[in-house]
Structures are given as C-alpha cells and as structure tokens.
Amino acid sequence: MTLAAAARSAGVRPGTAKNYLERVKEKYRKAGRPAYTKLELAVRLREDGLAI
After folding, report:
1. Is residue 6 within 8 Å of residue 17, measured between CB atoms?
2. CA end-to-end span of the chain, whole Å?
3. Within the chain, what is the greatest distance between any pair of CA atoms?
C-alpha cells in the first residue's frame, strides 16, 4: 500500500502518515532493531506479531 493510500485509509493527511511512519522507525532504531525501509518495518512488525 502506498503512503497516500494508507493515509486515506487512516483518515489522515499523507504528511501526518509519513510522520507516524518515521516515529515508528525511530522507536525500532532506539530498540536496536532498525527498520530503514517500509519493507524492513513490515518484517519487524511481523516478527513482533503486530501484523499479519
């Protein structure tokens, strides 16, 4: 899903969705499990049982 599509689905503006995405990535970096791309982030979320 594109960032714009995800933003529409969540009912927020694309800039807000990007901000949310960057905040989640930063939390993973601080936890020592960096996710630099959306694909890497998806892997982390699956590993943590937060996505299907």
Report:
1. yes
2. 14
3. 31
d(CA 11, CA 33): 29
- What pLDDT digit, counting tens, does each position of 9-34 carry? 999 999 999 999 999 999 999 999 99
Amino acid at 40: E
Does the pTM exceed 0.85? no
Q: Which two tokens stand for residue 52?
A: 């299907």
Return the residue matching tokens 């009912």.
11
Pair of tokens at residue 10: 């969540």
Buried b (16+ CB within 10 A) or exposed e, 12-40: eeeeebeeebeeebeebeeeeeebeeeee
